[in-house]
Amino acid sequence: MMHLGIDLGTSGVKAVLTGADGALLAQATAPLVVSTPQPLWSEQDPKAWWHATVAALRQLGTSHDLSAVRAIGLAGQMHGAVLLDAGEQVLRPAILWNDGRSGMECRELEAAEPNSRALTGNLAMPGFTAPKLLWVRRHEPDLFARTARVLLPKDWLRLQMTGEAISDMSDASGTLWLDVGRRRWSPEMLAATDLSESHMPRLVEGTAVGGCLRPEAAGAFGLRAGIAVAGGGGDNAAGAVGIGCVEPGDAFVSLGTSGVIFVSDPGFLPDPARTVHAFCHCLPDSWHRMSVILSAGASLAWLAGMTGTAEAALLAEAEREHPRDRPVFLPYLTGERTPHNNPAASGVFFGLSSGTTRAAMTLAVLEGVAFALADGLDALEARGGRISELTAIGGGSRSALWLGIVAAAMGRTLTTTDGSEVGPALGAARLARVCGGDASAAETFVKPATTARFDPSPALIEMLMPRRALYRKLYPALRPLFPVPEIAP
Question: Model-level pTM?
């Protein structure tokens, strides 16, 4: 008896298998690419998601008999807009979470519905789904008129798997169409974008059945037809489940493509003024808050591409050389959310000299991401109280060097657990285990054993303090130089 978790990420699709006891058995990844045809744009072809999912599952099928899978869980990148016509055909490339074109539409949305922040618990930002539809209405009116359904990325994948348009509460929280406190679609927010509930998928909790695998998809995947597909969750909520971050006060830091600090809450605690996200958790009657930076692992990947050096080689070089004379880096390669909410913010190296080495630039990138995360932690703690310890997840959690820097920058202890680098996919498999009736939530959503602990190093804290102080001066100084680029219709 096995359960399958699928995480539709930005840079790839990750799939994991867990056994009858919930332990991780195998994992596979298939890559994805992002298209940026204009400044601030970030898009993907949904068909690529399907092909990557098939490829990842076929990798798993080389070592395991997938016919033993009892249920499937889905996790995925949040906020993306997949527009479908009445025949459920994709009308245009999906507009992704890190797309920044809809800044003007955010202001328009909040003007159209003055209670927006109270209903959704969030400040309207370009990353969210609803402003994207206002942009389409303005710039692509023919496509907007033909739009019969809007789905989030993982829910488009679900549609191909089950034939049903269904989403879960956590992922739907990132649309700005959900009444997050009441866990239902908001007629007011939908009306503000000239849409109705008929354009939306049906909502279920993350542990509930969200469709069953139809024969065509089962054949492509090597699975049995008819098995349940759990409601699942947005990537971060599913990642929380993967590491047992389900009780109030539990927290994690994610070093994926983006960077996130996530804390589970006892109830709905919105704080939009600090650009903190307040969302439903993917478990019934629970909520969480997040601070988000848009380029965490993406910053390291960018440097690797620019220097023609593998990320692992960059990290090894930085750890070996650790030069003290290095620049300060602002990781705003695709704009920023918490705490600045500025889609036009740019990445910056400050303090370059003729002696700056590649290792120095790598360390500056690692520190810049850590400083941005520390700003997010400050925003979260301003309302919710001190967070003393966080679990680290995401691909960046494999780097002890990076985790040590993040721990020192935040002044908090970080831990890692088994499977932390595939947290969302593992969480999706856990949701599938409960959805399939093979275990209770109490039995399933436990914290895995700690594999490593990173306490803040006093020496590193002392060294980073003046660098963070300089980092925090740079954005206010440069803010007037970050104009929004002209975007063609």
Answer: 0.90
